[in-house]
UniProtKB/TrEMBL annotation:
Keywords: Cell membrane, Glycosyltransferase, Membrane, Transferase, Transmembrane, Transmembrane helix. PANTHER family: MANNOSYLTRANSFERASE YKCB-RELATED, UNDECAPRENYL PHOSPHATE-ALPHA-4-AMINO-4-DEOXY-L-ARABINOSE ARABINOSYL TRANSFERASE. Residues 452-552 form the Aminoarabinose transferase C-terminal domain. The keyword Aminoacyl-tRNA synthetase does not apply. Its main location: membrane. The lineage of its organism: Bacteria, Pseudomonadati, Thermodesulfobacteriota, Desulfuromonadia, Geobacterales. This is Glycosyltransferase family 39 protein. The chain crosses the membrane at residues 20-40, 97-114, 120-140, 147-164, 176-207, 219-237, 268-290, 302-320, 326-348, 360-379, 385-406, 418-441. InterPro entries: ArnT-like_N, Arnt_C, LipidA_mod_glycosyltrf_83. It is a multi-pass membrane protein. It is found in: Cell membrane. It comes from the Bacteria. Residues 20-245 form the ArnT-like N-terminal domain.
Length: 553
């Protein structure tokens, strides 16, 4: 058997060596070409523009977006990105760095958690499953709040079970890690940072009837630690901004969960295909990994599997019930599922391939079909995101991966099966973004027009956008006048006198025909109206499939 497979399947190996190898492998994957592609609008540029403005103003307490108050998210990612900008300058790399490091940290902690609960091999396999999940790799390299949330919540939830798993010898240090990282999760994305870990812990105690844990959890000192980390920023931002409390806690938490106010409503089953698609090729093993977690709770390792199942099910159910849904919301369930899936492969390495056979055959067959679909997609899709060569490359990788998986399932070879799944996913991750992103970025990035404005516009020039375009402000490094609606900064647009910065079309035309130089990002179908109703004809500086950047000079 090849050396790498021997290393993979050994039940005992140096923890330090494992962590070093995992850090080298996934550090390369998470960080390679991190700044190669422009930031994607609106999410990535939003979470880069807010810390850029914080540094410009010298205020790390009150978040502003396009220089008006923006209270939809807490401050952790803003602080991390501001720190990164201070170290490395303002760039795509520095904007994504701490999210990529959070993804890497999640992989490494999953190794630690799996090893502590089930042994070295399960821990190593769990890290490889999670890090070899193409959907997780791609999302962890994007500048969004869900990645730091996933890392902090993973450490919090993992620390609790590491503290509580041995009823006779509780480990108080891990309880304090639970409180610390729950507080950081609150700073990452709000109350769900404590509500979801609290729900998982509650149901673990109820279902195992281990009420003694409540005495062991250091509730008083742990809660004080939680408040010491989580509370100061909320206190300061409320003192400086009296409107913060109602908007953040009522509007952004209860109304977001219970109503369709954010216009992100999706059916209750929305996350089922999302989870399946983003965890491919490991998603086929999820039902088997979750099966019998309740029935086998009294077996060796059964309580830990029960806890991991609760972790995945409760968080998945919570976001499925919510009336506001986006694909990245369920990222915190991935580490728990990765450890459970790793347990299946560990069992197969010990000689029991039966639980893997059916999902392996299903995954191999579907991967072959998906590969064929990728070959045909550029030929039949309207405005395809990949060309024929890109479809050929992606399709060939997926077909080859499926063929290896089918062969391994037929031979009942868990090593070939695992390596085939992992290698195919990593190869797909290394190639697909370079094929898909160029066309995707053309539709979702404003780097080029922003840099044009930054280069050409004098200090007295006015930058205008038809609708909010966060990337335009970020790359131009100046405030935008907005016309045709404020978009997601509607709340901030109503605080103070913002009349000069939020205009209707008549106000924009008056500005356009005025004495100041104007650079305006407009929709393509508005160009004719602007030309017909203006004394100064627009000069086109840049264009895309949806927009023009025009100037009156």
């Amino acid at each position: 058997m090849p050396l790498q497979l021997n290393y993979l399947t050994r039940p005992h190996q140096s923890r330090r060596r494992d962590l070093l190898l995992l850090t080298l492998l996934f550090g390369l994957l998470f960080l390679q070409l991190l700044g190669h592609f422009p930031l994607i609008d609106p999410d990535e540029t939003r979470y880069a523009e807010i810390p850029r403005e914080m540094l410009e103003r010298g205020d790390l307490i009150t978040p502003l977006l396009n220089y008006v108050k923006y209270f939809e998210k807490p401050v952790l990612l803003y602080w991390l990105n501001a720190f990164s900008f201070s170290l490395f300058g303002i760039s795509e790399f520095s904007a994504r760095l701490f999210c990529a490091l959070s993804g890497l940290g999640t992989v490494l902690f999953s190794y630690h958690l799996g090893r502590e609960l089930f042994g070295r091999r399960t821990g190593l396999l769990a890290a490889l499953v999670l890090g070899g999940c193409t959907g997780f790799l791609i999302q962890a390299r994007i500048n969004i709040t869900d990645i730091p949330l996933t890392f902090t919540m993973t450490v919090a939830l993992g620390s609790y079970i590491l503290a509580a798993r041995d009823a006779d010898h509780p480990r108080p240090g891990y309880y304090y890690l639970f409180y610390l990282f729950a507080a950081l999760a609150v700073l990452a994305k709000g109350l769900i940072g404590i509500v979801l870990p609290g729900a998982v812990v509650f149901w673990h105690i109820v279902l195992t009837r281990r009420w003694r844990i409540l005495k062991e959890m250091r509730l008083v000192t742990g809660f004080l630690l939680f408040l010491a980390v989580a509370a100061p920023w909320f206190v300061l931002v409320c003192q400086r901004n009296p409107e913060f409390f109602q908007f953040f806690f009522i509007h952004e938490h209860f109304e977001r969960f219970l109503t369709k106010v954010h216009r992100r409503y999706q059916p209750v089953w929305y996350f089922i295909p999302i989870l399946f698609g983003f965890m491919i090729p490991w998603s086929f093993f999820i039902p088997t990994a979750l099966r019998n977690f309740w029935r086998n709770r009294a077996a060796t390792g059964g309580e830990a599997r029960l806890y991991l199942a609760l972790w995945a099910i409760i968080i998945f159910a919570f976001f499925s019930k919510s009336n506001s849904k986006l694909p990245a919301y369920i990222l915190p369930v991935y580490p728990a599922l990765a450890i459970l899936i790793a347990g299946l492969f560990d069992r197969a390495f010990n000689g029991d391939f039966r639980p893997l056979r059916r999902p392996a055959l299903a995954s191999g067959g579907l991967l072959v079909l998906l590969g064929c679909a990728a070959l045909l997609y550029p030929l039949v899709a309207h405005r395809a995101l990949v060309g024929p060569i890109g479809g050929l490359v992606i399709g060939s990788i997926v077909i080859l991966q499926g063929a290896v998986v089918l062969a391994a399932a037929k031979r009942e070879d868990p090593r070939q099966l695992f390596v085939g799944l992992l290698a195919g996913s990593i190869l797909l991750f290394l190639t697909a973004p370079h094929i898909v992103f160029p066309l995707f970025v053309e539709r979702k990035s404003y780097r080029e027009p922003g840099q044009i404005v930054k280069k050409l516009a004098a200090p007295d020039a006015v930058l205008v956008s038809q609708g909010l375009r966060q990337g335009l402000s970020y790359y131009a490094e100046r405030r935008c006048v907005i016309f045709d609606g404020p978009g997601e900064i509607e709340f901030g647009s109503k605080i103070g006198d913002q009349s000069a910065w939020f205009l209707n079309r008549d106000g924009f035309r008056a500005l356009w025909n005025g004495p100041k130089p104007v650079y305006a990002m407009i929709l393509r179908d508005y160009l004719g109206e602007l030309s017909a109703g203006s004394a100064v004809k627009p000069r086109i500086l840049w264009q895309s499939s949806k927009h023009y950047l025009v100037t009156n000079r």
